[in-house]
Specification:
Shape: globular
Largest sheet: 4 strands, parallel
Oligomer: single chain
Radius of gyration: 21 Å
Distance between the termini: 62 Å
Number of helices: 8
CATH architecture of the largest domain: 3-Layer(aba) Sandwich
Strand content: 5-15%
CATH topology of the largest domain: Dna Topoisomerase Vi A Subunit, Chain: A, domain 2
Amino acid sequence: MITDLDHLIGLFAKLPGFGPRSARRAVLRLVEQPEARMLPLANALLAVARNVKVCTVCGNLDTRDPCGICADPHRERDLICVVESVGDLWALERARAHHGLYHVLGGTLSAIGGTGPEDLNLASLLPRLGQGGAGELILALSATVDGAATAHWVADKVAPSGVRVTRVAQGVPMGGALDVLDDGTLAAALRARR
């Protein structure tokens, strides 16, 4: 018979970065001090579950709409960074690498994965460009075949707007050795040299 603790451990084990052992350790730490650890976590999870929204402007997740980034008057409004997922947006924000706005596509084109143009969030981007506020669109998509295909597709779709389209540099990672990199990464690194 599965107990409440077993069920909780099973739920934790489904989270990224958790396996059965790390899930057991995390649950043990929570139940050792339920008042100090477990109840605040449960309340925070419930609050987010009830209040999280998809930003109607960019596709970010936040407890308000428009999200905090879109509503921030100090952001560079003429610079929009297109990303595949909210996780990518959060990674760029964590790195403090971009001070403009974002647009989340919700994936990449993938013939194998069955993701077509109608599955991506591009329709809400085009009016943002048509309003004349964006001067540059940065495509920050993965360095994969699907990412490259999606970048070309997005560039073609936004071309009539006249907005300058750029792509993030790709190539040799910091601390990377040339002899272990694949041919595509090396070629991209040479093309993106400065």
